Amino acid sequence: MIHINENFLKLKASYLFSDIAKRVAAYQAENPDKTIIKLGIGDVTEPLPQACLEAFHKAIDEMGNRDTFRGYGPEQGYPFLREAIAQHDFQNRGADVSPDEIFVSDGSKCDSGNFQEIFADDIRIAIPDPVYPVYVDTNVMAGRTGQNIDERYQNLVYLEATKENNYSPALPTEPVDLIYLCYPNNPIGVTLNKEQLNAWVDYAKENKAIILYDAAYVSFIRDEATPHSIYEIEGARDVAVEFRSFSKTAGFTGTRCAFTVIPKELKAWDKAGNEHSIHALWNRRHSTKFNGVSYPIQRAAAAVYSPEGQLETKQLTDFYLENAKLIRDAMEKLGYSCIGGDNAPYIWIHTGTDSWEFFDKLLQKAGVVCTPGSGFGRCGEGYVRISAFNSRENVVTALERITESLS
Ligand code: MLT
């Protein structure tokens, strides 16, 4: 008889955003005349930048011509894209990353979810609370946790981000081997300064741990003193992997392109104490399970680094940040204390009430979808997240409706 991986039974019935989508669909079916505005999942609404679109079209034409047609590309990505990434995203900011340390992929969700596969089953893992649910759920699936008791999986070390610690989790008080960090943060929209990030790098060094650093929202940073990459911190090449994505930078959520940086120095150990290269292990995994991102999409992504692409992606992220400011101002005017929205596209709102109840209230009274904070972890209870990803018209209408229904 075939048996299932019983670790899957420890998970909540559905993934947070699928759960929200189901509830919204049920509400819409019961109220077909209501127009619902979605400020829940962080999904972009604005079209691809012109520079990306042109490069995309041109590459598609190349695929239709025998002389320029391409079949399988390198699993790690075409050199033209890896070189542009290394130069613009890292070397220009003084971070030492070379093109062959970059693995191009179809998404940071997949990369940050899959990366745990190359580590042992019994490592100790530190995960923030609240957190992007993928980091937790993929470790549950892999069997690294016990049951979920009171919204906490046994065997995980939770790094609490609360009002009391100014939403910046303290270092673990016990040794851990793998640490997930996400900055600018999803869901709470905050960033870390150099000193704070330095403390994490030092901790990882002292404990021979690895940091999985998710920087998917880096293009929303406007405070120049804020580190854009963990590799701006001395010593980070020895202890950190960084995930980046074109999804929110250039509107690629439907187009799919991202990348993971793994410095050659990064090591982990087998049970006998022998050192192994994480770059080599991930390369083995990546080339076995992944056949590369399509050529036209990589061309479209590389166009982000052209002068026009840089200008247009800045305009795009500026646009969403203006939405974020409108949302934060409106919610503060209603008396809610908020964080985020200035260097990130998410606003974290303290409602002081049950997160799902507030979600239902906003949906039923205003026809607006947010994300209940408790969906990101126990510390998210009493909060909701509002995303800045929508058209200006929809954001303005949503805020008018929220103001009217909550005043
Ligand atoms: C979110 O809403 O948290 C993001 O859209 C999730 C994602 O990028 O997968």
What order do the helices and strands come in, and which of them pair?
Blueprint: H1 16-30, E1 37-38, H2 50-63, H3 79-90, E2 102-105, H4 108-114, E3 125-129, H5 133-141, E4 148-149, E5 152-153, E6 156-160, E7 178-182, H6 194-206, E8 210-214, E9 240-245, H7 247-250, E10 258-261, E11 267-269, E12 275-277, H8 278-289, H9 295-302, H10 307-333, E13 337-340, E14 346-350, H11 355-366, E15 368-369, E16 371-372, E17 383-387, H12 392-406
Parallel strand pairs: 1-15, 3-6, 3-7, 7-8, 8-9
Antiparallel strand pairs: 2-10, 4-5, 9-10, 11-12, 13-14, 14-17, 16-17
Helix pairs in contact: 2-9, 3-9, 4-5, 10-12
The chain binds D-malate.
What percent of residues adopt helix (DSSP H or I)?
25-40%
How large is the radius of gyration? 21 Å
- Here the CATH topology of the largest domain equals Aspartate Aminotransferase, domain 2
**In sequence order, what are the helices and strands, one letter per element?**
HEHHEHEHEEEEHEEHEEEHHHEEHEEEH
Q: Give me the count of strands.
A: 17
What count of domains describes the coordinates?
2
CATH H-level superfamily title of the largest domain: Type I PLP-dependent aspartate aminotransferase-like (Major domain)
Query: If helices are DSSP runs of H or I spanning 4 or more residues, what is the number of helices?
Result: 12
State the major sheet.
7 strands, mixed
Basic shape:
globular
The small-molecule ligands in this entry are: D-malate
Q: Under the CATH scheme, which class of the largest domain?
A: Alpha Beta
Order of strands, main sheet, comes to 2-10-9-8-7-3-6
